[in-house]
Amino acid sequence: MLTKTNGIVIKTIKYGDSSAITKIFTEEFGLLGYHVPAVFKNKGVIKPSHLQVLNCLEFSFNFSNAKNLYTIKDLTCHYHFNSSQFSQQAYYNVIAELVAQTIKENEQNQSLFHYLFHQLLPSLNEHTSFWQLPTAMIQILYHCGCAPNTEAYEENFLLDLQNGIFFSGTKLSLHAAKADVSFIIYSILNHGSENLAQDAVLRHQTIEALILYFKLHINEHFDLRSREVLWQVMKG
């Protein structure tokens, strides 16, 4: 049956001389694979630019539980990253890494999809703000259903990254974020990031703590290797 859905391009690789295999995170079916024949010949309605990572698409295909790869019938691109600013290009690369390592094969998550499609990805062409990456990471955790529980938080409490709870620090925890990092994570979850001080060292420590949180709760192999470039353009 022909199905129309929204999707986010997660990965595209060349297949043969002119075709592509692309992974698309769909609104209704989760992450699916698609074979796009002759796309690099630029003779069809689908162009290589349509398959850029993190593009937001509306497209049609014939869905069947028995298939491993599908064929796209028609396609409209609603958003694509096109900023020439180096800082935004560096941020785009980190977000591409972040999203690719979060989404699991065939797992449906419409809450996460709507956040990415309608909020995070359209913002990539806008000016990069100081706390934008930690905020995006925390929002993704929230929409994956494993964000830290802030109900028990009090001043100077620590975040237990393993269990996702805040505690007084009087008990031992192998994976505990520092008090100032814990406060940043608590604040973003409850109040947003607009009023947080712009401390580059603290931002770096917060992102590193969140990377460990992703390893513990989302993907044990999680990492953001392209963040080193981002550090250089986000200093100060």
Molecular structure report:
With 236 residues, this protein is α+β, with helices and mostly antiparallel strands. It has two domains: 2-79, OB fold (Dihydrolipoamide Acetyltransferase, E2P), CATH 2.40.50.140; 86-233, Recombination protein O, C-terminal domain (de novo design (two linked rop proteins)). The chain is 33% helix and 22% strand. The chain has helices at 86-102, 110-120, 132-143, 179-191, 200-217, 227-233; strands spanning 2-15, 19-26, 30-36, 56-62, 69-70, 72-79, 158-160, 165-167. Helix 1 runs antiparallel to helix 6 and helix 4 packs across helix 5 (200-217). The radius of gyration is 19 Å and the shape is elongated. The N and C termini lie far apart (54 Å).
Fourth-level CATH superfamily of the largest domain:
Recombination protein O, C-terminal domain
- Using only CA atoms, what is the Rg? 19 Å
Report how far apart the termini are.
54 Å
Mean pLDDT: 92
Give the second-level CATH assignment, the architecture of the largest domain.
Answer: Up-down Bundle
Q: Name the overall outline.
A: elongated
How are helices and strands ordered from N to C? EEEEEEHHHEEHHH
